[in-house]
Design goal:
four-stranded antiparallel beta sheet, globular, alpha+beta
């Protein structure tokens, strides 16, 4: 079986969290993602350039659903919805996207849940899964230069900053310095 034919596990767990693949067949995950991507504190952290609306989100979902090379195949994209086990509330996402030579790793937690270790806990489980079960040996992650809390999470997970990969995104007044972090599975 090739990597493209292998699908991601539909769920993962930690002691406090349940992680499930983003569900394209219901509106619940889309509603949550819309809420997440329109929260002003999240927009500031993600440095979103365009306004997210439900129509745009539905278009993105259609691209995700095209097939294993773009969707939930090892060579594409997967988004795990992070839920609290005790309430089942969705509080965040952890994602993996294969791009160029190194897979890209990311996460986001709703602001009202920041500071509770959820980003580290959920990300650690997805990272464990990607390296130990899927077999990835390296991943990249990036943050804007000023996002020190996110950088702390990456460092706790074992990512190391690689200044040679840093870059500037945007132009004019919209320039943002992006710092790159690399994880090498041992």
């Amino acid at each position: 079986m090739t990597n493209q034919e292998t699908k991601f596990r539909t769920s993962l767990e930690t002691s406090r969290l349940s992680l499930t693949l983003y569900n394209l067949t219901t509106n619940d995950d889309a509603q949550w993602m819309y809420r997440f991507l329109t929260d002003p504190r999240v927009v500031a952290m993600l440095n979103l350039k365009s306004i997210v609306n439900m129509e745009t989100l539905k278009t993105i979902e259609k691209v995700w659903a095209l097939g294993p090379d773009i969707a939930n195949g090892y060579t594409g994209l997967c988004v795990y919805m992070v839920r609290l086990k005790d309430t089942k509330d969705v509080i965040g996402v952890v994602s993996y996207k294969h791009k160029r030579t190194d897979p890209d790793f990311g996460y986001g937690i709703l602001p009202e849940y920041w500071g509770n270790g959820y980003a580290t806990e959920a990300s650690a489980e997805v990272l464990r899964y990607l390296t130990e079960e899927v077999g990835l040996s390296s991943l990249l992650a990036h943050t804007d230069a000023g996002h020190h809390n996110s950088q702390r999470v990456l460092k706790k997970l074992g990512f190391v900053r690689d200044p040679e990969l840093d870059f500037v995104e945007g132009s004019g007044c919209d320039k943002v310095s992006v710092e790159m972090f690399q994880f090498m599975h041992q």
